[in-house]
Amino acid sequence: xxxxxxxxxxxxxxxxxxxxxxxxxxxxxxxxxxxxxxxxxxxxxxxxxxxxxxxxxxxxxxxxxxxxxxxxxxxxxxxxxxxxxxxxxxxxxxxxxxxxxxxxxxxxxxxxxxxxxxxxxx
Length: 122
Hints:
The chain is mainly alpha-helical. It has two domains: about 1-40, no CATH class; about 40-120, no CATH class. Helix content is about 45%, strand content about 5%. It contains eight helices and two strands. It has a two-stranded parallel sheet with strand order 1-2. The chain is globular, with a radius of gyration of 17 Å. The model has no long low-confidence stretch (mean pLDDT about 80).
């Protein structure tokens, strides 16, 4: 914990506090303790991070239209659920239309989340 605290304090001392809102502290944890035999990480069941970058999936990632039929992050085969930051969804005006969209329209759309949902229903 001392090591993790040191990384976070350094970020704040360098006025990079805005990164805190993105959840970089979780990425720091993953980077520092991944592969250690005394730490067990079970992160694959939850689809909430881009596994390449370890950054939290943002609404822009989840509700983007997929590029050339490709999702821009990997979905582990053992993923059981996907985190959609609901509070962010309510607070950000540009995503308000999603709350008003019915299930059928969402499933038929070309959004990343739609492709993931269709894949899970097979």
